[in-house]
Amino acid sequence: MSKSIYATPEEAEAAFYRAFESTDLEAMMHVWYRDEAIVCIHPGGPRLEGPEEVRSGWKAVFDSGQRLRFSLRDQIRTRDALLSIHLVKEYVHVSGVLRGVVLATNVYQQVGGGWYMILHHASPEPVSEVERLESEAVH
Q1: Are 106 and 16 spatial neighbours (Cβ–Cβ below 8 Å)?
Q2: Is residue 28 situated within a structural domain?
Q3: Kindly report the CA angle at 29 between 25 and 34, in degrees rounded to 5?
Q4: In DSSP terms, which residues pair with 120 in a beta bridge?
Q5: Most buried residue, 16, 77, 80, 98, by most Cβ within 10 Å?
Q6: How far is CA 23 from CA 37, 61, 64, 102, 138, in A?
Q7: What is the Cα–Cα distance from 18 to 37, expressed in whole angstroms?
Q8: Three-state DSSP class for 30?
Q9: What predicted TM-score, i.e. pTM, was given to this entire model?
Q10: How would you write the pLDDT of the chain (139 residues) with one tens digit per residue?
Q11: Has residue 1 been placed in a domain?
């Protein structure tokens, strides 16, 4: 685990999306708890378990060269003393254009006085929100 501590799950989540948008692998892995039980599932991808698989998965995403920007909507959060679960809709933008909507579950655990990600599971919105928004814009 890194030395820096995220005081709240919201701080950890903000750091997660900053690292994602800047394609900064070290910053991304800084958000994750260093434990074999962590899990990351990218849209359409396999279940990645443990720090090495999670790191490899993020490296592949970042190596694609595509810079994504996110706006989060329809956030639902639940929290107790040690666990925080965030359900979000990620509106994914490429070069300022909405390219997709992803449903994500982000789970953070309090460890050693700080909050770290232990799960990120993302899958495409079943009914294309992009198509719906484009359709509404036309009508």
Answers
A1: yes
A2: yes
A3: 155
A4: 40, 106
A5: 16
A6: 24, 8, 10, 18, 34
A7: 23
A8: helix
A9: 0.88
A10: 444 689 999 999 999 999 999 999 999 999 999 999 999 999 999 999 999 999 999 999 999 988 999 999 999 999 999 999 999 999 999 998 999 999 999 999 999 899 999 999 999 988 665 666 666 666 5
A11: no
Question: Is 127 within the bounds of a domain?
Answer: yes
Which one-letter amino acid corresponds to residue 77?
Answer: R
The token duo for 7 is 């005081």
Q: Identify the CATH number of the domain in which residue 72 sits.
A: 3.10.450.50
CA distance 104 to 86: 8
- Gap between the Cα atoms of 128 and 138, Å rounded: 16
For the record, the structure tokens of 108 come out as: 């953070």
What are the structure tokens assigned to 25, written together?
Answer: 């692998």
Burial of 88 (0-12, 13-18, 19+ CB in 10 A): buried
